[in-house]
Design brief:
membrane, mainly alpha, hydrolase activity, binds fe (ii) ion, 69% helix, Ribonucleotide Reductase, subunit A
């Protein structure tokens, strides 16, 4: 499939003006659990691009280099578009600054250019470790992307169409580039068994970290939501209620991604449906709106 098209960023345009704070009507828990994406991705995806830039000189394969550059373009677009949502949340009275400052610290300092806590690792080893973390995160973004493309219950809940489009456009590109971070890690990660052991370590650190950040983020958003004014708390019960309605992925869908990734012969090309992703990208309103704007600008 890789030879048939190039991975490249798409121009998109989202208009947040009419998106309500609870963009899934009457479902604040599902709304805010999904909103955690906007808290983590602007800093997280910016960090992906930074680490990949550092690793580019190690790439000795032309096809991979093209994929990696396309991946970097897509991730930096995602990061920018999610940061616009944060601005929109702030305009509606939900300030996410205190949370995102911690996320910035995680990516800029704990996972920054040098190992934290005075850890004595070579530059090369520290880079390889960070690449293994990116590959592990991308396992989850592929699973979530596949989920959001298939989540018919979300449509039935009549969510804000702009937010649903953002999630599906992003999810579809995650499915489209699902193998790139893994291939990059395999290419730059040295040789087995150290490479395979580090791949497992990357996942062993990433999965609990994401789980923790997600719970903390959902709790933060619900606590600071001016519409809820403290009437609701984030709880496993409310979360599972939203899962049962099909508004969030099941624990099994998320959890099974880990042992699958741990298999020695694993490759992410088996995640999700590339056809479904490309079909969505061909019709995404945000992509069409941006294409229309470009067309209009050319005519004027
Ligand atoms: Fe992304
Ligand atoms: Fe991605």
């Amino acid at each position: 499939m890789r030879d048939r098209y190039r991975i490249a960023p798409r121009r998109v345009s989202f208009d947040w003006q009419h998106t309500p704070l609870h963009w899934i009507p009457d479902e604040p828990t599902a709304t805010h659990v999904i909103n955690v994406l906007h808290l983590l991705l602007p800093a997280g995806e910016r960090w992906f691009v930074k680490v990949f830039k550092e690793a580019l000189p190690l790439v000795r394969d032309e096809a991979l280099l093209k994929d990696v550059k396309g991946f970097m373009g897509q991730e930096s677009t995602h990061s920018v578009q999610h940061s616009y949502v944060l601005r929109h949340l702030a305009e509606q009275g939900l300030d996410t600054g205190p949370y995102t400052q911690r996320v910035d610290f995680l990516f800029d300092v704990l996972l920054g250019d040098r190992p934290p806590f005075g850890l004595r690792l070579s530059e090369r080893e520290w880079l390889r470790f960070r690449l293994s973390v990116i590959a592990a995160v991308e396992q989850f973004t592929a699973v979530l992307g596949d989920w959001v493309l298939r989540a018919d219950s979300l449509d039935e809940a009549e969510p804000d169409p702009v937010m649903l489009d953002l999630l599906r456009w992003h999810g579809a590109e995650e499915v489209e580039h699902r193998s790139v971070a893994f291939d990059m890690y395999q290419h730059c990660g040295g040789s087995d068994p150290a490479r395979y052991a580090r791949r497992l370590l990357g996942m062993a650190i990433t999965a609990p970290m994401l789980f923790y950040l997600w719970g903390w983020g959902a709790g933060y958003l619900i606590r600071h939501d001016p519409w809820l004014a403290g009437r609701l708390r984030y709880s496993l019960r409310e979360h599972n209620r939203a899962v049962a309605k099909g508004l969030l992925p099941t624990w099994r869908e998320l959890g099974s991604a880990v042992p699958r990734y741990a298999r020695r012969s694993y490759h992410p090309s088996q995640e999700g449906s590339l056809r479904k992703a490309l079909d969505y990208l061909a019709t995404s309103p945000a992509a069409r709106a941006a294409a229309g704007a470009v067309g209009r600008a050319a005519l004027s």
